[in-house]
């Protein structure tokens, strides 16, 4: 060191310390790299380094760059955690100017921070160590780092170089990163290099001559020198451990080199080789070998592309224009980025590119695969899918979307792809079909549904044709609930897929489709082995990763309105509150399992083995064996299930808890297992023991099992981590004081217990489960019990008025977690017989005592359990729900197929047959007959707010006065109809009276204007004429009397009628005249009907 410092005795002490640090760095890191044959001492080498540094810095040669610190390669890799840049030639003003210019090009990024560092080392390519991989490296005595440069020379290899300007980009991995050499390196030592091609060279020949020689067969090998223009440079390949690359020479001047230049603006997916150029063009490098280092492809870098493929609209999930590089393409970085950005580098092909090679995917299919991989990673990883298994799930989705023939092409020949003319490769292969299905997250779909439910709202469309005759009370009641259904295929012009995990919700007692963005409730049905649709959803579906291609999006609207009349429907200020419920209706057969749950993958496998103790993740990754834990189980058959209600919980639970009760029959004794049997096939020992009827109580979070428990199915209840068989034994209440205990032994389900559906057919599996009654049997069976269960199809749903009485209100189950709470929600469901459409029954359901029941919409087939059968004073049969009642949707056929055949019309009925009861009192039917006479006709303008008579332009109510200015026109008629078998009294309401009187629109409006003067007019039959009590000579009364007696009204007619409350009483004696003969006949009370529709054709 003394020899070195003698040259700088006139320098300051600070400069002396800096020179000493340089000498030590040269001695430790650089001198060991110099060949001993050169005879360079450390002092001479240090002087050479210092000279090159001063030349690179410029300015006065006497000045030393003491602001720069010497850094070794190992120190750079170890300590530099953030990207940085360094340049001996930049002043502070020069750096700031370049930094501002770079940030203006890409506003979302910051310029690389500057560090004053000196970097010197040898350039090598790994050949000396026998590990040449095509990547140049900067090496000193301590370590080496990969580097990328804009221009290179083989004369630089093995030389000790000073690097004036460079960027250092660290990687995510520890002690990893690479250099970007901005300026050519400066040689520190000038040792000579020799090039020996390894053989004698003949004269230089043209490309044409060389091509002719290649076509001739020659057994002797010779080295030739060919001169031409380099037109194609293929990327380096490694085949069976050997690395090589190809280039194509053409005659000089025979072709003009074509290239595309641009700036990298975004890294779309570095692992997949996807980038963005100039903010609008995509770049795909997946068909080229993976780069060992990033090669400078960072946002802000300028590049040149040669021989790339131009793809337009290759995928809806990629830019419109994509430049795709193949094995004949080349990419060159012309300017490194000056911006700081995160870099992820893979030393080999990633899983996406491996799938591309294995399946020979086209560009469109590969771009969709990358889009799918991103979607799965964002929505399912790491909760349900591990990071290393994301591509496996994406591959299965690709297999689901694409057919095998469309997905797989013929075997590739990479040599022909590089050198054959005309050029052909997987990128150029024309694909008639390519995947275009969009993968929406659950949050995306939920947000779309919540927008669509109100965007599609049309208030007039929610009302019946008689809306113009409805009072405000009737009008607002009709608007309080509505439903909007959209098939998933109609949501988007492109195919739409949903991917998520099926889970059970412990708060709403429903099945949910969930990902990491959101969860949507699902109403799911399945097809029984007999072909009938049921709600028997297997417990094994819980935890399955599924793909949904077909389903119905259901959006239920709840509104509170105060519209005075139908004329104000265009004024949204009368809507005081609105909210919605959205969910999916789907069939199990429309679900595709991407990754099965543990129970689904082990169904029908032998139990009580060590393999049954394993539990795979949803992505079906290789499992680590878990320690088998002892457990106990019991096999039982479910016989009945009650509805979920709010109940008193345990002593430590505050307030009410959701809960329900099931009645079950134990098929054997409690069994002990060395490992969890799950849903494997039953063993003989499980079915031995005394059969016992028990009550299963589900409370709190255990209500999540509600949607997967169905009467008639067999289940295995498992309590894990215990060998005590008593925990699964039902316990009864001891009788005291001579009181007989009627309740069955009860078992309270614990949250940590598991329930599994047993799918194998067991003997007498359905015994003890009563069959459901039909609607006809509930209506007409003389032996029907008070509590009945039946099935049918919902034809109408009506929301009843809120109960303003003294009944105490209980908040809905979802009040704490959901702002959309339906309190005091009571419905009237009209359910018709599935086989006899004319037989209908009204079911009054109270939904305010538990979770909201999904799917109660027109067209759904339902099973109604444990409702009270009642008979009204008018002898009409109806049903009323109880706290134990349960309504379940079992079929969605009519809901799913909107373009299906129209529902079958009501049956044609004779009045005599209908009145006699031989038709089992059909509620709805068609009749053909003759209008004998009009018994009464009432026309009235009614105040839409209070219901009083409305005259001219004011309400007639005076105590208290009503200031309403809106009124509706209401009419009612009663006629005698006979068809030769009997007669009936038929009532017509406002919307059917006009058809009865056969008035056109102008005549009907004129009649309304005349009636508005008086407010109301009523005519009725007295003898053979019609009269009015108030003013018989009024022109309107005279007109109506003549009209009702005319043949235009008393005519043959075809009606659809509904049975009304019938009069009770004895038969009446009447005189009938037939010519000159008088008859006295006994007549039963006339059949009372209400007209639903007048058939005009």
From TrEMBL:
Protein family (similarity comment): Belongs to the CTC1 family.
Is the Transport keyword given for this protein?
Answer: no
The protein's matches in InterPro entries, at most eight in alphabetical order, are given as: CTC1 (IPR029156), CTC1-like (IPR042617)
The listed locations are: Chromosome, Telomere; Nucleus
Question: Where mainly found?
Answer: nucleus
**What protein does this entry describe?**
CST complex subunit CTC1
Q: Does the keyword Transferase apply?
A: no
